[in-house]
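Need a sequence for this fold. Nothing fancy.
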């Protein structure tokens, strides 16, 4: 019920109203780093693309991502297509990371204007060769995984294979 006009309402802090609020470890996801680790293990491709997108938008010179052969194949395509400068392994297995060096124009404009994740862990998007997307009418790239490995949409058309569309980039 609202107080009448001119009378201030008594305000209680939220921590006083909720039992156990503010107690560390009271909730299974209270440790934020643990939540990030769990989410990264659910969809490593989305994690990779999000880290690259965020670092590029923030104009960071490099970003570290978890290492795997699949991640390395995606980074190899990004390097071939000119979206990143290079990448190199950092650290020792099993905690090895890949340091990705981002690419910028002389005026500090990122080489990656947009990076959109298409297939997600809850919704995988597959296309046959006839229905492969043309990103920005051929100016952008779609990265997909096929039975012949990870490749761009142009290479998939050349080899006449379809597959799961991972992302669109331009």
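Here you go.
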């Amino acid at each position: 019920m609202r107080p009448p006009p001119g009378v201030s309402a008594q305000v209680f802090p939220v921590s006083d109203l909720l039992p156990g609020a503010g107690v560390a470890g009271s909730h299974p996801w209270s440790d934020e780093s643990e939540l990030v680790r769990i989410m990264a293990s659910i969809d490593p491709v989305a994690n990779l693309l999000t880290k690259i997108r965020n670092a590029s938008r923030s104009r960071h010179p490099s970003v570290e991502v978890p290492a795997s052969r699949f991640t390395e194949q995606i980074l190899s395509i990004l390097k071939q297509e000119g979206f990143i400068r290079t990448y190199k392994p950092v650290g020792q297995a099993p905690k090895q990371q890949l340091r990705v060096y981002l690419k910028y124009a002389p005026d500090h404009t990122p080489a990656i204007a947009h990076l959109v994740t298409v297939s997600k862990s809850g919704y995988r998007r597959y296309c046959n060769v006839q229905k492969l997307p043309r990103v920005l009418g051929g100016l952008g790239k779609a990265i997909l995984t096929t039975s012949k490995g990870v490749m761009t949409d142009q290479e998939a058309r050349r080899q006449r294979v379809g597959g799961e569309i991972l992302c669109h980039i331009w």
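For context: The radius of gyration is 22 Å.
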